[in-house]
Design goal:
Structural class: alpha+beta
Strand content: 35-45%
Distance between the termini: 48 Å
Number of strands: 8
Radius of gyration: 20 Å
Order of helices and strands: HEHEEEEHEEE
Length: 161
């Protein structure tokens, strides 16, 4: 009887510990944990230009209606709007994959902050990310591109992790 009680006690403690760790991980990304149950739409590599910081897609569309393929990236430390010119090495934009054109971004360290600086405005950037079915965009790498994409000396890279 004593052994059975210890086993049950240890099992309950383990479940509570795991539940606490899961809650802590979810708290670091307010729009889902990225756990096993969350579906992914796939790996994306896209190229775009940061158009503005701390603004909305609606504000940019009103001010510059000629701009197309605008997407708003929301992060707990701010938001940006960028225009997308290439997705997975193909010209165009995301079209029906991303409507409405707003995503919640999760990124470690200063990855998002690199996009939300004055220095990033109007610069071409390549972003590698995973798009979740919850409209969460997990950004892993950011590469600021020079005039030519292949010119590695003109690119600066920021990695997650």
């Amino acid at each position: 009887m004593g052994t059975r009680g210890k086993t049950i006690g240890i099992s309950v403690a383990a479940v509570l510990l795991l539940a606490g760790l899961t809650t802590q991980a979810q708290g670091q990304c307010p729009h889902g944990s990225g756990g096993y149950g969350e579906a992914s739409r796939g790996w994306l590599e896209f190229i775009g230009t940061v158009i503005c910081i701390d603004c909305t897609v609606e504000e940019i569309r009103e001010a510059q209606p000629e701009l197309g393929h605008l997407y708003q990236l929301n992060h707990e430390r701010g938001q940006i709007v960028l225009t997308i010119t290439e997705v997975n090495h193909q010209k165009y934009g995301w079209g029906t994959l991303a409507y409405p054109p707003k995503f919640y971004v999760c990124a470690k360290g200063n990855v998002f902050e690199q996009l939300a600086t004055e220095e990033a405005l109007f610069k071409k950037v390549e972003i590698s990310a995973m798009l979740r079915s919850t409209r969460r965009l997990d950004i892993f790498t950011i590469v600021f591109l020079g005039e030519e994409r292949e010119d590695a000396t003109s690119a600066s890279e920021v990695r997650w992790g």
